[in-house]
Amino acid sequence: MTDAVHSIDTLLAVDFGTASTRVALFDVVEGKYRFIASGEAPTTVDAPYREASEGMRHALAELQAITGRTFFDESAQLILPATADGRGADVLVATSSAGPAVQAVLVGLLPDVSLENARRIANTHYLTIRDTFSLGDTRPDEQRIDAILHIRPDLLLVTGGTENGAAEALIKMLDTVSLACHLLPPEHRVKLLFAGNTALQPKVNEKFGSITSVHHAPNLQPDLGLTDLPPARQALEEVIESLRVEQIGGFNNVAVWTGGRIYPTAQAESNILRFFSRAIGPNRGVLSVNVGSASTSVAAGFGDHVSLVVRPDLGVGVNAAQILKESTVESLLQWLPFDLTPDGLRDFVYNKAAHPHTIPVDPHEAALEYALTRQALALALRRARRDWTRKAKGPRADLMPWLDLIFGGGASLARVPRPGLAAMLMLDALQPVGQCDLFLDSHHMGAALGALATVNPTAVVQILDSGAFLSLGTTFSAVGTTRPSELACLATLQTPAGENTVEVKYGSFEILPFTSTQTGKLTLKPRPGFDVGFGPGRGVKNKEDLTGGAVGIVIDARGRPLAFPNDPAQRRDTVQKWIAKAAGEG
Amino acid sequence: MPLPDLHTSKLNMAYLPLTTHVTFLATVQRERLLPMPGEVTVAERQRVEAADIVARAYVADHHSLVNVAEALGVPDDKIDQYMVKDNGQAVKKGELLAVRKTALGIGTKRLPSPVDGELIVVGEGKALLGSFSKPVELHAGIPGTVLRVHEGRGITIEAAGALISGVWGNGQEGFAVMRAVGSSPTAPLLTEQVDMSLRGMMVAAGVLQDTAAFKQMAEVRIRGLVLGSLKADLIPAVQKLDFPVLVTEGFGVQGFSPAAYSLLVTNTGREMWVNAHPWNRFTGQRPEAFIPLPSPGQSPATLVDGDPLAPGKRVRITRGAEFGRSGTVVALSDHAVLLPGGGRARVATVEFEQVEEPWLNVPFANLEILE
């Protein structure tokens, strides 16, 4: 027995990533919740361990070594709640992006309506859509049955039919799916989430109740022209969580400690984005990106409109080869400051996929890793933008809308050796326009806070307020074009320490050091026709609301879309200069 | 050269790297499982050879859906009473599946089966038939002893021999006599080396860097390839080959590690099982090559997987200019140190046998344990 204390002061969060399991400790310091420390260890979800809690114990051992706080009792049980003598934690929350992606088949009526809605909620999860059945699918029933037997999906996501609408076509399609489910091995009990016409729920139970695990969600499309995605998205999240607890060794124990929930990492992170998006309002956006070994996610918020896209097949480690499949080799080579053959690049990418948890040890390897990170982000962003609200405003349809904040996370960004390099990677891959503040989730706290928000929102607000994310600074990205090396913008920063003026040439960026604690006034004089966020050719004088950060104020005049010199040697030289400047060496 | 002072770890915070096997002799246990439930045809403690069938399943390779209700002109939920075949019963093409008789026989409706096969299930007014061209037969793959029978699914085989873990495979498997070709671990496979002496053999070669030898390999009918490394641009072509191709180290021209090369050269002329199925990190099924070896008397030690990184462990470097070098861990840092690329990471001091550079500090993340 432990001596329980009554207030919920000590909060513990664990995130199971593909490569690393991270724990973070939060506690009340001088009356407010604060981040205390974190621990990290290799994830043990995969063979030969197949026991997630093993990696968590190692990560907690590191946390214990740092803080001196004990988390396990003599019988190796997590101490929950915390004891009066300062052992254990009051609450544990968990998030995960580890384990293989859920294999799903989507079933809907019309490809552009119900199936598209199903696809939109499916894309918010670590889920691979292996096949889709709809009225637009001309395959005979036998082929659909063979497809299900071949795929052996973990999940069937079924949509279709408005409330009180026609039911026969969907029932007919489900007949085939039901016959296929009869043929799956008995130990492979697929989960079925029905988010269609609610009048059909009894029929779905009747057809699938004995052969699948049936779950219901409110209709994705209750009426013609009306979609209601959030309830079905929430139901899908819960179904996937239960599937993960069944599939991943040790998650059942972790779920007991957390009160049943192990949130998907991307969803938890998007909770935090939602908080900022609502605070900022619909006129400007908030973006959160996360690049991991196996997956990449992009969440965007414009007021109440928040969209999330998870790419479980795209990452910079185990899924690095997917980057090559979706990109030209040249699009990766353009980021390298040295000469490399296409064959050399391919060999590097496949070696990274074979040894996904390795880290770069020299500048060349680091540059290759940066190229993968940029391209994974750019590819995920391209997919994500399809779901963004059309009301998002920006300077041009082919460019990014105006964004106030960008949060970068995931090991690829968090472990770069200099904050300036993280800022550069975000600018290169995302290419924001105008004024935007950049933050780095250097302690992997986004997911932890998103999960904690469900149990203690006050703590989350206080922790965010205390600087949970590393502020990199404020960027001003110019839209416009001129000859290389022509002046694009003149920037002057006045601080109590003095005045600093830089000429920003087209094709380059400049950094004005300015920390979060400094005060100052910024004056920008862009070249006629160049828009740094205040309209073409319009500058700003003595601007005071500057965020500042570990990098400072970045004026990026490399063009939107970003332009490279045509000559390969000149391009390599330019990229090297960018890297050196971002690393504080140029 | 003196070893560096790394403030060797006192905190016992284990780092768990991947374990890779380049093992000259060990007891290996491998599961052999059917894709669908079936029947196991061998018993525990039975000796099996590589080509022996150990389990069999009847899995339909084609399905036919027959609309019985429509053919008989009856409601969907009434067809059971008209079926003349039961679920699981075999049926020949043209043989009656269902019949709806009328009082005088006039207008009787008969529904023949459109295929040879089995009636799998009846439901929703339809009958689902499965056609079987041949059963799925599961071969032992490696010669050994049946350690366990997994009822209806397959077996676990135990065998003694040499094992090399791989990093990539083209999705196939095979068993044949292995011949190592080439004069060094990094020697590329040359077309002229693929002659009739390699007919029906597994060929081990340091590097495959072009497709020049593919036509010759097809003519000679080699049974498989074990490569140290493969040029990554050849992956699409290699995936189309009809024999297993296993890559043990990685992609490029680095070839075999000295240990893998030594193992292959030592065992040239022996039979080898090559499992070139893709690496599934979640389940632990990894591409590999196994050479059964006699082990008179006591069984050799079983394989160890998943040990933490520790002084005394044999390790191999998996990234950077030193990719493939193997040595022994002599110390672990308890704090992150600055790397030449600018990053910080905890490192292990690895001691090598080569005199010219006797030790290196290598990030934990760039090491795998060699067993």
End-to-end distance of chain B: 27 Å
In which range does the helix fraction of chain A lie?
A: 25-40%
Strands of chain B, count: 28
**How many helical elements of chain A?**
17
- Please give the largest β-sheet of chain A: 8 strands, mixed
Per the CATH scheme, the topology name of the largest domain in chain B is Glucose Oxidase, domain 1
Notes on the protein architecture:
The complex is a heterodimer of chains A (586) and B (371). Chain A has 586 residues and is an alpha/beta fold. In chain A, 34% of the residues lie in helices and 24% in strands. Chain A folds into 3 domains: 86 residues, 2-Layer Sandwich (Nucleotidyltransferase, domain 5), CATH 3.30.420; 146 residues, Response regulator (Rossmann fold, 3-Layer(aba) Sandwich); 316 residues, no CATH class. In chain A, the strands form 4 sheets. In chain A, strands 13-12-11-14-15-16-22-19 form an 8-stranded mixed beta sheet, with helices on both faces. In chain A, strands 3-2-1-4-10 form a 5-stranded mixed beta sheet, sandwiched between helices. In chain A, strands 6-5-7-8-9 form a 5-stranded parallel beta sheet, with helices on both faces. In chain A, strand 2 and strand 3 form a beta hairpin. The N and C termini of chain A lie far apart (60 Å). Chain B has 371 residues and is mainly beta. Chain B has 3 domains: 144 residues, Glucose Oxidase, domain 1 (3-Layer(bba) Sandwich), CATH 3.50.30; 70 residues, OB fold (Dihydrolipoamide Acetyltransferase, E2P) (Beta Barrel); 68 residues, Roll (SH3 type barrels), CATH 2.30.30.50. Chain B has 4 helices and 28 strands. In chain B, a hairpin with an 8-residue loop joins strand 8 and strand 9. Chain B is elongated and about 100 Å long. Chain B starts with 18 loop residues before the first strand and ends with a strand. The N terminus of chain B is likely disordered. At the A-B interface, helix 1, helix 3, helix 4, helix 11 and helix 12 of A face strand 6, strand 10, strand 11 and strand 25 of B.
